[in-house]
Each structure stands twice: as C-alpha cells, then as structure tokens.
C-alpha cells in the first residue's frame, strides 16, 4: 500500500469498496492539501460518489486507508467520525437541501446552533458568510422564496459557517444554469481559499472542474491523477 | 478575423490616427495577439485605395507619418454588410486528435494514455482561462468563456472517445 503524500490534509490509499458483486472502488487513491481545490471527475457509475462518501467517513471502505490530519478514519468510532463531520467537514450537494421552514439566515446558522452556539452569535456569523456569498439580502426569506442559484449560495454559506477544513461539494452546480453555476463556483472557491479550506469537488462538468487546482479521474473504481497523465 | 473590417468598425465612432486605431484594436480584441504597426498601415492604405476610408488630416512632426483616417459612406456600408453576414460554422471534421487515436490503436499504442494526456492539457488551458476570467473585466470574461465552451466540447468528445475505445479498436483493426 502506498502512503499518503506529505503535507496532505485528507488522503486515501488503496480504497476498495463493493456493494454485493459490484466493485464501486477498486484500489482508488486520493489526496488534498490545505487550501487546495481538487476536482473528482469520471463517468456515471465510476465510483466518484463512493469515493467522496469514504473520504468523508460516511461509508467505511472494505479495505484501504483514509487519513485526515494524520488520523485514520477507519479506526475511529462512529461517534468520532460523526463529530469530525460536524466540526471539520462541510458539505454542499446538487440541491441545496435547505430546511424549508427556516429562513435563509436560520439555515446558515443551523450548524452553529446544533453545536450549541447562541442564536444571536450564530446568526451574526451566518450573516458574515452570507455577505461573502452575496446573499445577505435574503436573510429573512425562506428557501421557497429564493431562486435556485441564490439557494445554492445560501447552502455554500451554511457549509462554511463552522469554518470546516475540508469542504465536500458534490455536483454543486448540477442544477444551475451556466451563469449561476459560474457565480457559485467563483464565490465557493474564493470563500474556501480565504479560509485555507481544502475542497473536494465532484463534478462531471469540465468548466466547473476548471475552477480546481488539480483533477482526479475515477474510472471503474480506480483513480488517475491527471497531473501525471502528461 | 478580418482586420480590415474590424478597423473600419472602430473608425465608425469617429476619425482616428493609425496609432490610436492600433491601441483600440489591441485593447478590445488583441489581448493575445496585438497588431503590428506595419499591419495597421498596410491595411489602412488598402482601405484608402478602395475608398472605404479617407485621410481626415495629417499632423506635422517627425517620426512616422501621422495620418488621421475617417470612414467613408462606402466604408460604413461595408461594415454593415460584414456584420450582417453570418460566419461560416467550423465543420471540425479534420481532427488531428482523431487521427492520432486511430493510429495509436492501429499500432498497438495506448490510446487511453493519449486521450488522458490531451485531457490534462485541455484542462490546464481551461484553468488558465478561468483564472484570467476571474481577474478580468466583462470583455475578458466573454472572450474566455467563448474559448472555454469550445474546449469543453473537445473534452466531451475525448470522454466519448475514451468510452468507445474498445469498439473503435475492433473496427480499425478489421
């Protein structure tokens, strides 16, 4: 088994994962450094999502290693992994998955509230993030009252509000038109870079991947670092 | 791009010296390929000969001749005709990349490596353009987006070709 690259914040080596007879990952490697944006690309069914789930500690691999800041994820208890996901990781999905009953600022503040931060302080921090994502004007509106692009920027603000060190973005622009997708990517990468967070960006769109620093292609459960393809 | 028509179009806003024309062209369209002075003056003398521009004045002084050019009515008509004619779409049927893929398959080399190498090269350029777009003004964004969409189309083809390599290998070796 190969070792995680020096200086990497999150790394996986030799990941295998099968669902019944189907091999989703067949020896995949991955690494991301602090402040780096890495795009994970590949055809549908290639294993991209499984790789992301293993990296985020949502799904345990059958074999292989995932290390975060030098700690082995596969050796942690469920409670430890869950705490890691709440405090160190942020998530953005294709559809913002905002809570429809809450206002936008309450949505953004939610991870802080769940961590025990007082409402006033949580919403103050949430507003600062909404400003960075240019959605501060929507603070009092509910998700149903804002556009898809605005909602997605609210979701990005929510994913960053706890100051995660790794942001997992799974097709963050998949449901948006070109212009809104561009804006989300611009603001997402700027915001992540401003906090030196690492970004794992799963996308099938190359124009979205072009916002990354590096690209990994997953095919048939195996990964290829495209820097080494030349 | 037709330099003559572009310079004519720039003159429609008002008379300019050759030097100003070059500067306006470079600012708006020549980021990556600025015009050579020689090209400006040879183009202007051709437009002059064809009656599409006229000399509006000559500034005295040393150095190269400082002619000020103005567009004529015939010039305005020429610009209008050019703008109203649709550009011929590129047929993209002569692809070096396709030739390389077929040759790699025919000679038993790795077509997958070739496609991956090309993909990485395309993405490298797309990253440069995305950075330029991020830092640039609206004009930069539009120019870069045009290039980015074309590169993206190439990449889609690369993906499709990669997915069909086995099938293609069988056919080319037949």
TrEMBL record, chain A:
PROSITE patterns hit by this protein: ABC_TRANSPORTER_2 (PS50893)
CDD domains: ABC_MJ0796_LolCDE_FtsE
GO molecular function: ATP binding
ABC transporter domain mapped to chain residues: 10-230
Top-level taxon of the source organism: Bacteria
Keywords: ATP-binding, Nucleotide-binding, Transport
Protein name, as recorded: ABC transporter ATP-binding protein
Native species: Streptomyces antimicrobicus
UniProtKB/TrEMBL annotation, chain B:
Superkingdom per UniProt: Bacteria
Transcription regulator PadR N-terminal domain segment(s): 7-77
Matches recorded under InterPro entries: Tscrpt_reg_PadR_N (IPR005149), WH-like_DNA-bd_sf (IPR036388), WH_DNA-bd_sf (IPR036390)
Protein name per its UniProtKB record: PadR family transcriptional regulator
Organism placement in taxonomy: Bacteria, Bacillati, Actinomycetota, Actinomycetes, Kitasatosporales
């Amino acid at each position: 088994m190969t070792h995680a690259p020096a200086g990497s914040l999150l790394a996986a080596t030799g990941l295998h994962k099968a669902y019944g007879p189907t091999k989703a990952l067949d020896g995949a490697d991955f690494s991301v450094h602090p402040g780096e944006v890495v795009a994970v690309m590949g055809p549908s069914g290639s294993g991209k999502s499984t790789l992301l789930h293993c990296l985020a500690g949502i799904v345990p691999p059958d074999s292989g290693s995932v290390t975060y800041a030098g700690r082995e994820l596969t050796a942690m208890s469920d409670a430890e992994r869950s705490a890691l996901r709440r405090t160190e990781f942020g998530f953005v999905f294709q559809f913002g998955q905002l809570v429809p009953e809450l206002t936008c600022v309450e949505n953004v503040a939610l991870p802080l509230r769940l961590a025990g931060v007082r409402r006033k302080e949580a919403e103050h921090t949430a507003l600062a993030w909404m400003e960075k994502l240019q959605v501060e004007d929507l603070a009092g509106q509910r998700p149903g009252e804002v556009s898809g692009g605005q909602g997605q920027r609210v979701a990005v603000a929510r994913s960053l509000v706890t100051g995660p060190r790794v942001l997992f973005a799974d097709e963050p622009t998949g449901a948006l038109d070109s212009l809104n997708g561009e804006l989300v990517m611009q603001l997402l990468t700027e915001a992540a870079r401003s906090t030196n967070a690492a970004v794992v960006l799963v996308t099938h769109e190359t124009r979205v991947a072009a916002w990354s620093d590096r690209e990994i292609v997953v095919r048939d459960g195996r990964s290829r670092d495209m820097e080494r393809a030349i | 791009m037709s330099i003559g028509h572009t310079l004519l179009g720039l003159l429609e806003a008002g008379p300019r010296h050759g030097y100003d024309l070059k500067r306006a062209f470079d600012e708006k369209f020549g980021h990556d390929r600025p015009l050579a002075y020689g090209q400006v003056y040879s183009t202007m003398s051709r437009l002059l000969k064809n009656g599409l521009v006229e000399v509006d004045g000559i500034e005295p002084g040393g150095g190269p001749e400082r002619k000020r050019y103005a567009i004529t009515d015939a010039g305005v008509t020429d610009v209008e005709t050019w703008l109203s004619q649709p550009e011929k779409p590129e047929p993209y049927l002569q692809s070096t990349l396709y030739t390389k893929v077929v040759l790699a398959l025919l000679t038993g080399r790795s077509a997958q490596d070739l496609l991956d190498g090309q993909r990485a090269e395309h993405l490298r350029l797309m990253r440069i353009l995305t950075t330029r777009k991020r830092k640039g003004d609206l004009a930069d964004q539009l120019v870069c987006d045009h290039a980015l969409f074309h590169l993206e189309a190439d990449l889609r083809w690369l993906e499709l070709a990669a997915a069909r390599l086995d099938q293609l290998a069988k056919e080319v070796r037949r």
